[in-house]
């Protein structure tokens, strides 16, 4: 094997660092489907639904009380999962309507969003798709440069294990 000039090896390492960073960014964008702003908007919609349901539950209980029936203002009803493993009965219990009706939307909202800053900022769906396309284009260019340097090294620089065949075949 011939010796590769140090500058070619360093250039390949620089390209690989950029490639890795872009792959990580693309993975992050693909895994986070909503921005913080969209998460907050979804929560606000849910809070409205919970408020309406909670107030509706209280109204029904008040009407039952007015007609002399037994009431259970703080009852929480859930849905059992009947296809659970034998001997278990997991169920879903949604406290949202009760909590919002009792303490208000602002308190519940603040509690839920207290860790919002731990989420990556994220991008809106449109901006995310645009950025992912830009990353893909940039990766194509960087990987083509890397492959050209590898090819020119006559085997002195090893190919990455995750090198894309379509890039390798385009250069060779």
Characterise this structure:
This protein is mainly alpha-helical. The protein has 6 helices and 2 strands; from the N terminus they run ααββαααα. The protein has a two-stranded antiparallel sheet. The longest helix is centred in the first third of the chain and has 31 residues, at 36-66. The model has no long low-confidence stretch (mean pLDDT 88).
Q: What class would the helix/strand composition place it in?
A: mainly alpha
Main sheet record? 2 strands, antiparallel
Distance between the termini: 19 Å
Discrete helix count: 6
- Total discrete domains: 2
The share of residues in extended strands comes to: under 5%
What's the alpha carbon Rg, rounded to whole Å?
A: 28 Å
Mean pLDDT: 88
Low-confidence stretches: none
Biggest sheet strand order reads: 1-2
Bin the helical content.
55-70%
Helix and strand pattern: HHEEHHHH
Please tell me what the overall shape is.
elongated
- The number of distinct β-strands equals 2
């Amino acid at each position: 094997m011939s010796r590769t000039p140090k500058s070619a090896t360093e250039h390949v390492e620089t390209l690989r660092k950029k490639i890795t960073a872009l792959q990580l960014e693309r993975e992050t964008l693909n895994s986070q489907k909503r921005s913080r702003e969209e998460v907050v908007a979804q929560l606000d919609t849910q809070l409205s639904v919970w408020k309406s349901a909670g107030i509706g539950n209280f109204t029904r209980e008040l009407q039952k009380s007015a007609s002399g029936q037994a009431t259970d203002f703080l009852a929480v009803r859930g849905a059992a999962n009947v296809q659970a493993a034998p001997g278990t009965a997991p169920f879903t219990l949604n406290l949202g309507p009760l909590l919002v009706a009792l303490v208000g939307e602002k308190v519940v909202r603040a509690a839920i969003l207290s860790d919002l800053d731990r989420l990556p900022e994220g991008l809106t769906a449109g901006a995310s798709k645009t950025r992912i396309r830009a990353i893909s284009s940039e990766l194509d260019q960087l990987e083509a440069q890397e492959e050209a340097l590898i090819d020119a090294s006559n085997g002195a620089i090893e190919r990455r294990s995750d090198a894309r065949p379509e890039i390798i075949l385009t250069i060779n």
